[in-house]
Structure formats: structure tokens, C-alpha cells
């Protein structure tokens, strides 16, 4: 292996490069992440560029790249920041109640930053993500799960919340009465092809909020995975 062979493409798997100390360094990783989150909250993922972020921070793009090597690294950092907003319950809390608090907090944190759902797709190995994944697995283990039951339960809960957030944020982007009416009419107009969807109001589920649906689904999932 040659010494100039590229390292892992995932930020969290690369060895941190030592940097010479700079006196009164105005730009820090924390400040960069905070500015990136603010930019994303205001304008969404489509408009985030390193140039726009450098302008927001009032620095040159070169100075920004000195701290964050790629836009993908920035995505890893801001997504881990969002997951850091998820509260971790006390370690001795009732397992079911603790899992419920964790998963509901996970959904709330991602919905508070709708762009975060679009950044899921790279290995989530940041310290905030791993701390909450550790709590998830430890709580399931404390509840009596092990082996494949433990692994599958952790995956189910993580995939449930991520999938729900992706679906919710996608529909919210299209939260136009005309679009919803057209979708509802499309399904109703093909009732012979989609009889159950038409009868149950698949597109316009006005009788339940997204939160009610999520909490009900979470409770059923916990019923299934916990001993």
C-alpha cells in the first residue's frame, strides 16, 4: 500500500490531521456547524453551498475548506448535530418508556430540521448518533433482548423513525391543497384498481394527525419487539 492512497470517504472514519495552533482563531468547527444549520433551516439543502456558507461566516472559501474538507463532511457534521438534540433518558428508566422518549425525540429533532431527512444516506457514525444508538441498544438489551432479536429490534426502531420523517417531510413539501386534492381525486378515480386506498382515505387521512399515526405505530412496534 502506498502512503498517498486515499483514506475513508466518511469523515468519522478518517484519522484527524494535527493542526498547528492558531492564535485567536475566529473560525471553529462548532461555529461552522451552527452557521450551516442556520443556513439549512432558512434555505433548505438545495441552496447550501460552501461558497454561501463562507459568505454567511464572512470568511473566504479557502478558510472554510481548511476546517471542512468537503461538502459531504459538512453534511455528516450537521446531521450529527441534529441528532445531538435528541434527549437521552436516564439509564435506569423503564425500558419501554425510555425507548418511547428516545424515538419521539428523534422524530421531533429531524422534523425541526426537515432538510436532515435528505442527508440520511451516508454512514451515521458521529459521536451524537453513536451515543443515542448505544442507548437504544443498551435499553433493548436491558429489556431482555439479545442476538438477532436485539439487532433486528434496533434496526426496526431506527428505520421506523427515519422512514416516517422522510415520508412526512416529503408530503409537507407538497402541502398544497390543490396537490392533495389532485392526489385524492386520482386515487378515487381509480377505485376499481385501489378499492382499499379509496375507501380508507389513504391520501387525505384527516381523521388522524401525523403525530397520532406515528405514536400509534410506535406503540404497536414496541408491543411487537419487547418481551
Structure explained in plain terms:
With 227 residues, the protein is mostly helical. It has 2 domains: 72 residues, Orthogonal Bundle (Arc Repressor Mutant, subunit A); 139 residues, Tetracycline Repressor, domain 2 (Orthogonal Bundle), CATH 1.10.357. The chain has 10 helices and no strands. Helix 7 packs antiparallel against helix 10. The radius of gyration is 21 Å and the shape is flat. The N terminus is likely disordered.
Which descriptors would you attach to this protein?
227 residues, mainly alpha, Arc Repressor Mutant, subunit A, Tetracycline Repressor, domain 2, 2 domains, disordered N terminus
Topology, element by element:
Elements: H1 29-43, H2 50-57, H3 61-67, H4 71-83, H5 95-112, H6 127-142, H7 147-173, H8 177-188, H9 195-200, H10 210-225
Helix pairs in contact: 1-4, 2-3, 5-6, 5-7, 5-10, 6-7, 7-10
Amino acid at each position: 500500500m502506498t502512503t498517498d492512497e486515499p483514506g475513508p470517504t466518511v469523515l468519522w472514519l478518517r484519522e484527524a490531521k494535527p493542526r498547528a495552533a492558531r492564535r485567536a482563531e475566529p473560525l471553529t468547527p462548532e461555529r461552522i456547524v451552527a452557521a450551516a444549520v442556520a443556513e439549512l433551516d432558512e434555505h433548505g439543502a438545495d441552496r447550501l453551498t460552501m461558497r454561501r456558507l463562507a459568505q454567511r461566516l464572512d470568511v473566504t472559501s479557502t478558510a472554510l475548506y481548511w476546517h471542512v474538507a468537503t461538502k459531504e463532511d459538512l453534511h455528516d457534521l450537521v446531521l450529527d448535530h441534529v441528532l445531538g438534540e435528541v434527549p437521552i433518558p436516564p439509564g435506569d428508566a423503564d425500558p419501554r418508556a425510555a425507548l418511547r422518549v428516545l424515538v419521539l425525540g428523534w422524530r421531533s429533532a429531524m422534523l425541526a430540521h426537515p432538510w436532515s431527512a435528505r442527508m440520511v444516506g451516508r454512514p451515521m457514525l458521529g459521536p451524537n448518533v453513536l451515543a443515542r444508538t448505544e442507548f437504544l441498544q443498551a435499553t433493548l438489551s436491558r429489556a431482555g433482548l439479545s442476538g438477532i432479536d436485539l439487532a433486528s429490534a434496533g434496526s426496526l426502531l431506527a428505520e421506523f423513525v427515519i422512514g416516517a420523517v422522510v415520508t412526512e417531510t416529503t408530503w409537507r413539501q407538497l402541502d398544497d391543497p390543490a396537490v392533495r386534492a389532485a392526489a385524492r381525486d386520482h386515487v378515487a378515480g381509480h377505485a376499481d384498481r385501489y378499492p382499499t386506498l379509496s375507501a380508507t382515505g389513504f391520501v387525505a387521512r384527516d381523521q388522524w394527525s401525523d403525530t397520532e399515526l406515528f405514536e400509534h405505530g410506535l406503540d404497536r412496534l414496541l408491543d411487537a419487539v419487547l418481551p
